[in-house]
Amino acid sequence: MNRRKFFTTSFAAGAAATLASTTTKAVDKKSVKILGVSCSPRKGKTTATAVQAALNAAKEVDPRIEVELIDLGGMQIAGSSGTSSQPSDDFDKILPALKDPLPDGLIIGSPSYFRTMSALCKAFLERLAVLRKPDLLLADTPVGVLAVGAYRNGGQELVIEQIQAAMLCHEVVIVGGKPGAHQGATLWNAFNDDITKDEFGIATARQLGIRVAEAAIQLCDTKI
Asked: Cα 54–193–75 angle (5° rounding)?
């Protein structure tokens, strides 16, 4: 084989290997699931709208991202019984969406009631214990939190801290937003349940969704 033929053959083989490698990587990149959970007893109201706004922004980050909203409004979910057995209730209906497959990112929203999370949110978080044993199924999952209050400073940041503290028991990755939402998204229900009129609040929800999506994509790509 002369030198020219050797280099031509080698170049073609290298190009083919590079193309194969690139194709394999493209195939390996799976969809990225980001799940939003609205923990307001009022179905389809301000908290659900805020979580959906965050999910919509997350979906814009990368075409691989798939989003799903779980609205707990109207559901009956009991808190922890303190034992290994739990009564059958609506938590059983949403559990498959939480673990099959496991989300690559999670956004949790709650209204602020008396400057704390809703009772429904507390019950939901307690029931997530099923994802801790025997394995920490949510470990390293990016989690962002938003809260909706009746006042601009109505305890939203306290609610965010409470939810974040509970989720740290799962060894998740707590994700804040960008400027305006470093800790999480804070929204003000001052417009007769039309939360979209709180432009600042909706902006923080979108920023939060973007950061959760970016973190989820980065973590998923490192696993490939």
From this structure: 70
